[in-house]
């Protein structure tokens, strides 16, 4: 039987890991010295529990990126190369590669088996905030502080689609489970859903009263999309693919500050 975990990260540099559903503290991860921007589980995080196995990755405002095991309080390894704030870490579906976004206007792809950087992209004119990989592993989507999203072909390293339409920074990007659509969340308080085959935005959702910090499709459904932001709420939408066809299902008012999904 697999254990389920959830985590939180703090401006102090600490990360905490809890069991679900009893919410008992498993451990406190100590390694960062400043504001932690994100932590992400490896796609097969619960399959191994050896101290040397990498189960999680985290990043912080000082440019540090650390790899963790579920069975240790200390980092397994550090990824060095960023000199400015790293906003997000994202695992490639294969589990071999890790993507990082940085406020130096670039994002990078790392091969963890050989501990090397294999891709360094500088297509955004401002900092890159979020990153998500296509389910089949062939594409990556990035959201930037320049208000644009970009879709990258990992086989060639080139940008193959430009997502233009948001009026402010893009803080969240997420591919749908079937890979045909991608959602973006912005500081303009809207979520946009884009059709990758038609290469166009199919609808815009005025999701929150303040900026959106995160967007995410339900893992096994094309019709459920959740958004979160600085309006202290999380919203769940039912999205039928087609222009304007979306419906708000519910809104949770659970937090006293902004949140990420």
Automatic annotation (TrEMBL):
Pfam families: WD40. Transmembrane segments: none annotated. It comes from the Eukaryota. CDD domains: WD40 (cd00200). One of its GO terms (cellular component) is U4/U6 x U5 tri-snRNP complex. Keywords: Repeat, WD repeat. The keyword Repeat applies. SUPFAM superfamilies: WD40 repeat-like (SSF50978). GO terms for biological process: mRNA splicing, via spliceosome. GO terms for molecular function: U4 snRNA binding; U6 snRNA binding. WD repeats lie at residues 29-78, 79-120, 121-162, 163-204. PANTHER family: PRE-MRNA PROCESSING FACTOR 4, WD40 REPEAT PROTEIN. This is Uncharacterized protein. It comes from Electrophorus electricus (Electric eel).
